[in-house]
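Reviewer 2 asked us to include a model.

Predict the structure of this chain.
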Amino acid sequence: MKSVLLSVFILRLEPLKVSVYPKNLMALFGENVQMQCRTNVGATYHWILNGTRLEADQYRVPTPLGQLTIYGLAEEDLGEYVCIAQNEAGIGASHTMVTVGGKAIYSNCYMCRGS
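Predicted model (structure tokens):
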């Protein structure tokens, strides 16, 4: 009779922890702003603004590493941003608020949307 050696590997995944920095972001209209989504392990990232998933465009540029840059902050950029991170361990989220802290410095801003 033959004996069979069976090896079993149990992969224990660390729970996904997600944080967004800065927690509250105040900027002026027309400024460029950045937010960073971080996890304790690798993940894929998606950004949500006021309940709507963001897609990359010329003003909002997410990266595969969890960073989101907004060029020329405009009124439609204000609100709650949620970073959704997902990997084999599961899914997690963290949020930040983007508010305006003053009036635009330039009245005729060439980078501002709607100008």
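Residues 19-97 form a domain with the Immunoglobulin-like fold (CATH 2.60.40.10). The two ends are 84 Å apart (CA to CA). We have added this to the supplementary material.
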